């Protein structure tokens, strides 16, 4: 799968508005500065940017910044797309800031990084939306502590416009999502299953699907949800 990604990327990472050289520098700088290699892959970053472009996303929320690799990908959706991204770890946040500063001002000016625990930051963002001092989000990417997936999704539903797209990363977990022991003992699997199983009862969910992914980052998958 990694060789296939390399081959495909060598032919397809050419077009569009993504700052490919800077994205590579962000990836390399994140690893040099000691961040875990757990960002989305280049192909997944582009997939997310294309989803945001198709959704004509103007205001994106990301939960889980890491080094802002996916954050910068999202800015390629359109020259006007803005993204707010939340990161809990101060050191990681400072590397994300450093990485964003590598981008041109036309990109960095559209990125708002927030330092804090998402579960504490999201209520504040929600009240800003409710008081009309911040626009609703039309695309939300959830990629942080998996135990809180359902809580983040419930905030997302309250902060999003009708028709908004929510994507949650790592919902397959190498197949552990259906492993009997992991279902009992692995908090990340338990959090993921709570989210998946809540979809059919949630009144804001219009439609949802999980797409399994295989590639240079291994076997995993995205949950994609369209909100009513
Ligand atoms: N979206 C990033 C990318 O693809 O480039 C990868 C994000 S990484 C998988 C998850 C990040 O979420 C980590 O940097 C971690 O510190 C952060 N995180 C974990 N728990 C969090 C929380 N409660 N609030 C905000 N960020 C959190």
TrEMBL record:
Domain of life: Eukaryota
Gene Ontology biological process: methylation
Molecular-function GO terms, alphabetical: O-methyltransferase activity; S-adenosylmethionine-dependent methyltransferase activity
PROSITE patterns, per database record: SAM_OMT_I
Keyword hit for S-adenosyl-L-methionine: yes
InterPro entries reported for this sequence: Cation-dep_OMT, SAM-dependent_MTases_sf, SAM_O-MeTrfase
Cited Pfam families: Methyltransf_3
Gene3D superfamilies the UniProt entry points to: Vaccinia Virus protein VP39
Keyword field: Methyltransferase, S-adenosyl-L-methionine, Transferase
S-adenosyl-L-methionine is among the record's keywords: yes
Record family assignment: Belongs to the class I-like SAM-binding methyltransferase superfamily. Cation-dependent O-methyltransferase family.
Protein name: O-methyltransferase
């Amino acid at each position: 799968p990694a060789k296939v990604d390399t081959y495909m990327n060598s032919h397809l990472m050419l077009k569009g508005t993504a700052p490919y050289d800077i994205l590579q520098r962000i990836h390399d700088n994140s690893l040099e500065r000691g961040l875990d290699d757990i960002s989305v892959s280049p192909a997944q970053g582009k997939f997310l940017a294309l989803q945001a472009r198709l959704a004509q996303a103007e205001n994106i929320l990301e939960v889980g910044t890491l080094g802002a690799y996916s954050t910068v990908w999202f800015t390629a959706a359109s020259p006007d797309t803005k993204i707010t991204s939340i990161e809990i770890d101060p050191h990681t946040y400072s590397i994300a800031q450093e990485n964003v500063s590598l981008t041109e001002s036309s990109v960095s000016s559209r990125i708002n990084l927030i330092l804090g625990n998402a579960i504490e930051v999201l209520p504040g963002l929600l009240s800003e939306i409710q008081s009309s001092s911040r626009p609703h989000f039309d695309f939300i990417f959830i990629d942080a502590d998996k135990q809180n997936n359902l809580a983040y999704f419930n905030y997302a539903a309250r902060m999003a416009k009708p028709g908004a797209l929510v994507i949650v990363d790592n919902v397959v977990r190498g197949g552990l999502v259906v492993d009997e022991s992991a279902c009992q003992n692995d908090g990340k699997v338990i959090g993921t299953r709570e989210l998946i199983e809540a979809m059919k009862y949630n009144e804001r969910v219009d439609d949802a699907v999980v797409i399994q992914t295989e590639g240079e980052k291994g076997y995993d998958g995205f949950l994609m949800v369209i909100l009513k």
